[in-house]
Structure formats: structure tokens, C-alpha cells
Design goal:
Length: 672
């Protein structure tokens, strides 16, 4: 018995010694995006290859690329930004496979459907997402630079789109749209691949040193992982169950995982392309995009052998979906076997009809050719257009272009646009224009040109690249519209609108201002008292009024005349203004009476303000008359009172002070 136990123990130690422990770092939390690795582990594919794999969920504090490059982790999964990191920082990383041939990374919105609507809007994304090339390239192709929109830190919650905290969200097409759909919210996706940007995603990578020192381990891990991915995509339901049982740290539902799987499956396979394939030409195109966006270190070498980025295994793993071509052949066979006779009959009928209507068709084609010629002539005479070669030399101009510029065709052909260029336009403007069109995208905008006679004119232009059958740029075509008169009228209308606004503001001020003192008149005071009362009824925030009357002002007018009286009114106004708060409102209530409105203040606070005003007036030496005094009444609003009752209370308190000797402030008795 002891010998048997000893034999089992020794056998276990030998097996464990032969098992290689390795680590895999994921770029995000556990979900179907990484299902192939879970399947390979849980179904024993890694164990069969002699591997004990530790799958590390995303750690925000770590840089996975740096950790793999420095050998803390053996393998990692990253995005197309790995190309940028290899060129700029970590030269020793090597790409093994690209799980997704096109990235699921998109912009998501619940309100907006097109790139044209992004300008000025809030886009929610994390710091590393802000340098995602596919998104930036898509935006840049429509002249949307980082100052065209507002970037806010992401919460990773699509509900921020619903409640208006953000207009767009950087997200995965396999996750967040499902979340919004379950909430009954329609979403709109702006996908870089719909604009011609196909970027790899979920690239499996390791270090050169790992390959040099443990090549067999690298090969075994790579093949076992691909085997896991094959099983995961062919058995989505079972793979989802594995995630729910062992890796569901996000609390996802099975339905959410199934949606994610079906979405990602479309991105993982391309016709006649082996699963996980990485093409060096595609890497080169992605790197070119990074370079145009200014994300590659300017000191980095220009000529790069992208073949060296990719691992070349001795044994590959073929996993490919049936191509459209194969499906077409199968469908053709079905047609031939089932409907062959009907197809032949239909073919003969089509030939007969074609011959019968041949002459009529020829006549129609001639008419269409004539119409096309006529349209071309109309275009030539009315639409300013031109084409250039790759060096910018003009190869064609329409007559309308000549009429607008004042040059003949002979003067323009073989010249560059420098002949009509306005030298006052900054070089940066043309640099941006050229960067857009040489990268294969359309440029739209406005700029000034100079006519042959030296006068300037404004145009609105659309400039597009011209491509040959191979997709190579052969030249550029521009269509322009003279908007000089339109701009003049627009500028005139703008100036006219500004002038109207100024006049309107001036009239509004005159309508609400006392002409003599420059403070609000009674009409404006009535409006402000009503506004404060409305706020009080809604929010129960108290406010007070102070009514101020200049003592014995009639004597001033009788003795010194009304001109001196007007001067005294102005000086009293100045004394009141010096002693009220920034939140208080001052106005002339009528004759020698003034009113101060004190928001968010009870009568005790208003009483303090009124005493400051009274003392300031009492101590001031007024022009011509010397010393004068003023009396006041203060009152605050009480629940259930209307505005007129409050004013009457303040007025009564004022005249009580007048009767008892003047130069004082009347306030209500303490409220119970």
C-alpha cells in the first residue's frame, strides 16, 4: 500500500513538472470577446498541450503591452494600437494572431445618426480610447478634429446617453447596443469600417524573448487557443454556459452573451481568409493612418518591414468559414438539378425579347447619349470644375471655371492652382486640405481665390481623389461654387442683425429705466417684485422691500428750484447704490420715493441695509442744500399675503416714521 501511494505521488510530481505555467493578460473584463481562451482552458486543450494557463482579467493599473514586453506576463491580447506601441515603445513584441479582422469599436448614440452631427457634441471615452486610430481616422476624414467636439471621461455606462450626460459614447458594437435595446432605447452606430477603416482587434501577442526561449510553448499555446476559438464559435451556446459558470464577473445574462457572440462572429471571419490571420500589408495601411494622425513618433524610421511584426509558425491551424463563392456554386448546382429545363426555357424567351426590341433599344440609347452630351455641355457652361494630376497640375477645366477666374483654358492647363491662389490664406489651411485628399478622403470647405484682374472671389469647393481599378490615386477633381455675393449678403445681414439687437437692447433699457436717475423705473420694479413673489410661492424663499422717501423734499424744490431737486435725486440714488448688496434691486418708485428689493432676506436683514442707506444720506453733503435726511419702511413677504398688502405695510411703516420725526427706519413688530 505504501509503495502504491509513493508511486502515485512520484507520478503526480513528474506530470506537474512537465506542465508549463504561463499567463495571459486580457485588455478588458471577462466576456464572450475572449471566449476561445476560456474554452481552451476549461475543455482541457491547454492541458493537452502541457500548459497551465492563468487568464488575467484587465487591471486598470497595469499596461499589458509593457508587462508582456518586460516578461511579467507571457502573452497578451491588445488592439490595433499595438502597432503604434511596437513602433514607438516596445520593439520586442510579436503578433501571433488577430482574432477579429475588423474592430467592434464604434461610436454609439441614442440621438444622432451621422458624423455631420458630431461637431460641438460631447463624446464619452477613456484616455486610451481618445487615441484609438479607427475612431480618429473616421472623424478626421470628415474634418472633425479634437477641437471640433468635447471629450469627457467615460463611465462605461450607456445610460449616460439616455440621461443626456453625453451625446456619443465610444463602445463595442457587441455590448452596449444590446443594453440600450433591453431598455427599449433605439441606438445608432457610427462604425469606422463603414467609412473604409478596417482595423484588427484582439491581437494575440508575445515577446521575441518568449519565442526564442520557449518556441514550443508559444506554438502549443497558439494552436490550443485557436482550437478553443473554433469550438467557441461553432458551439456558441455551450461557450456562453462556460462563461456563466466560471468567468461571469460582470453578471452578464446568457442572452447578452449570445448577442455579443453573434456580433463578434461576423467580425472574426472574412471570405476565404483563415481565422486569426494577420496580413503585413494591412498592418502597413493601419500604420499609415497612425502616421497621418500624427500618432507615430516623428523620429521613427519611415521604412518598416511589417513582415517582422508577425510570427511565422512552422504549423498553422486552418479554420475558415465557407466562402460566398462556395455557397454560390452550391446554389448553382441546386438550380441546375431542380430547375434546369425551366431555366433554359426562360433563357430562350429572354433572347427572343432582346432581339425583338433591339432596334428600339438602340434608338433609346442614342437618345440617352444625346441627353448625356447635352447635360455635359450644361455642366461645362454652368459648373466650375477642374481635375489635376498627383502634383497638382491642372489637366482639365470647365468653361464655367474659366469664366469665374478670368483665365482661358490654355492659361490654366498644366499650371497649378498657385495661379489663382490667394497668398493671404495660411499655409496650414492648404496643408490640411492636402493631408485629407492624399489619404483618399473627400475635402469640403470654403476659401478665397484671385481672378486674373487681381480681384478676389470666395468659393465653396468639394475636392475628391480619383482612383484607378487597383484603388490607387491618379489625381484629384474639384467642383466649386462662387459664393462671393452670398458671403457679402450674409455679412451684411449679420451686421444688420447686430445693429437691430443693439437698438432693441437700448429701447428695452429705456423702457425699464428712470431717465433722470438711471436706475429702474416703477414698471421694472413691479416686474421684479412679481418675479420674487413667484419664486417665494414655489420655493418658500423669503424676500423684503425697502421704501425710501427723501424728507422735506418739497422744501428743496420750493427754495432751490426743480433743477437742484433733480441733482439731489441723482446724488441720493448714488448713496443708495453704494450701500445695497449686489443681489439687491434699486428703482425709483415715484417722485422722491425709491424702492429696494432684497431677495432671500427677511425684514431684519432689510432693516440693516436700510439703516446703512439712511446713515449714508444723513452724513453726505449734498450740492447746494448741504444736509438732508431720508425715512424708510421695511417689510418682508409672509405666507398668504399678496404683493399689494406687503407694499402697503412698508408704506404705512414709512409714514409712521415721518409722523414721529423723520430720519429713521420703520420695521414691523417681531413676528410670533
Amino acid at each position: 500500500m505504501k509503495k502504491l501511494i509513493f508511486f502515485i505521488l512520484i507520478t503526480t510530481i513528474i506530470v506537474q513538472a512537465q506542465t508549463k505555467k504561463i499567463s495571459l493578460a486580457l485588455p478588458w473584463k471577462h466576456q464572450f470577446q475572449f471566449a476561445g481562451y476560456y474554452v481552451a482552458k476549461e475543455l482541457g486543450y491547454y492541458a493537452d498541450a502541457g500548459l497551465d494557463v492563468s487568464i488575467k482579467e484587465y487591471d486598470l493599473s497595469l499596461d499589458n503591452t509593457k508587462e508582456v514586453s518586460s516578461h511579467k506576463y507571457d502573452f497578451g491580447v491588445g488592439h490595433s494600437s499595438l502597432i503604434l506601441e511596437k513602433i514607438n515603445d516596445y520593439d520586442n513584441i510579436i503578433f501571433l494572431n488577430a482574432i477579429y479582422q475588423s474592430s467592434p469599436f464604434v461610436l454609439l448614440s441614442t440621438k444622432y445618426k451621422s458624423l455631420k452631427e458630431i461637431s460641438g457634441k460631447k463624446i464619452m471615452m477613456s484616455n486610451d480610447q481618445t487615441v484609438t486610430a479607427s475612431i480618429n481616422a473616421m472623424l478626421y476624414s470628415h474634418n472633425l478634429k479634437q477641437n471640433s467636439y468635447i471629450t469627457i471621461e467615460t463611465s462605461f455606462e450607456p445610460t449616460d446617453l439616455i440621461n443626456g450626460n453625453a451625446d456619443f459614447m465610444a463602445s463595442y458594437s457587441s455590448n452596449e447596443p444590446y443594453t440600450l435595446n433591453k431598455k427599449g432605447v433605439e441606438s445608432f452606430i457610427l462604425d469606422p469600417k463603414d467609412y473604409g477603416y478596417y482595423f484588427y482587434s484582439d491581437i494575440l501577442f508575445t515577446s521575441k524573448e518568449m519565442i526564442q526561449n520557449n518556441k514550443k510553448v508559444v506554438d502549443n499555446f497558439r494552436l490550443a487557443s485557436l482550437r478553443g476559438w473554433k469550438y467557441a464559435f461553432e458551439n456558441i451556446d455551450e461557450a456562453a454556459e462556460i462563461i456563466l459558470k466560471y468567468y461571469n464577473t460582470q453578471g452578464r445574462t446568457k442572452a447578452a452573451l449570445i448577442f455579443e457572440a453573434n456580433t463578434l462572429k461576423k467580425l472574426a471571419f472574412m471570405d476565404d481568409v483563415n481565422f486569426g490571420n494577420i496580413n503585413h500589408e494591412q498592418l502597413k495601411e493601419i500604420a499609415t493612418t497612425y502616421r497621418l494622425l500624427g500618432l507615430i513618433d516623428p523620429d521613427a524610421k519611415v521604412k518598416i518591414d511589417f513582415k517582422t511584426f508577425i510570427y511565422s509558425p512552422e504549423q498553422d491551424y486552418n479554420f475558415i468559414l465557407k466562402s460566398k463563392k462556395d455557397k454560390a456554386n452550391s446554389f448553382l448546382e441546386l438550380i441546375q438539378t431542380t430547375y434546369f429545363k425551366s431555366l433554359i426555357s426562360l433563357l430562350f424567351l429572354i433572347i427572343f425579347i432582346s432581339l425583338f426590341f433591339k432596334k428600339r433599344t438602340e434608338k433609346l440609347l442614342k437618345e440617352q447619349a444625346y441627353q448625356l452630351k447635352l447635360q455635359n455641355e450644361i455642366f461645362n457652361l454652368n459648373i466650375a470644375s477642374c481635375t489635376t494630376d498627383l502634383d497638382g497640375k491642372i489637366t482639365y477645366v470647365s468653361q464655367a471655371f474659366c469664366d469665374t477666374s478670368g483665365y482661358t483654358k490654355d492659361e490654366l492647363i498644366s499650371n497649378t492652382h498657385n495661379i489663382i491662389k490667394d497668398k493671404r490664406t495660411p499655409d496650414a489651411f492648404y496643408k490640411d486640405l492636402w493631408l485629407t485628399i492624399i489619404s483618399g478622403h473627400t475635402w469640403e470647405g470654403e476659401f478665397k481665390n484671385i481672378k486674373k484682374d487681381g480681384s478676389s472671389y470666395q468659393i465653396q469647393a468639394v475636392i475628391t481623389p480619383l482612383f484607378d481599378k487597383k484603388g490607387e490615386i491618379t489625381g484629384y477633381k474639384a467642383i466649386a461654387k462662387d459664393i462671393t455675393l452670398e458671403k457679402v449678403l450674409k455679412d451684411f445681414n449679420k451686421k444688420l442683425e447686430e445693429e437691430v439687437k443693439k437698438k432693441t437692447a437700448k429701447l428695452e433699457k429705456l423702457a425699464s429705466t428712470d431717465k433722470l436717475t438711471g436706475v429702474y423705473n416703477r414698471v421694472k420694479l413691479d416686474e421684479d417684485v412679481s418675479a420674487n413673489y413667484s419664486h417665494f410661492t414655489k420655493h418658500n424663499e423669503n424676500f423684503s422691500i425697502i421704501i425710501i422717501d427723501i424728507d422735506k423734499f418739497k422744501d428743496v424744490n420750493d427754495i432751490y428750484g426743480h433743477q437742484v431737486g433733480d441733482i439731489i435725486l441723482k446724488e441720493v440714488t448714488q448713496q443708495i447704490q453704494k450701500n445695497i448688496r449686489s443681489t439687491d434691486t434699486l428703482g425709483r418708485w415715484g417722485g422722491e420715493e425709491f424702492m429696494v428689493i432684497c431677495p432671500k432676506s427677511d425684514y431684519k436683514i432689510a432693516y440693516i441695509v436700510a439703516q446703512k442707506i439712511r446713515k449714508s444720506i444723513e452724513s453726505h453733503d449734498f450740492s447746494k442744500v448741504g444736509k438732508i435726511t431720508a425715512s424708510s419702511g421695511v417689510y418682508d413677504i409672509e405666507l398668504g399675503q399678496d404683493i399689494q398688502t406687503m407694499i402697503n405695510h412698508a408704506d404705512t411703516l414709512l409714514y409712521d416714521v415721518k409722523k414721529s420725526g423723520r430720519n429713521n427706519v420703520g420695521q414691523p413688530k417681531a413676528k410670533k
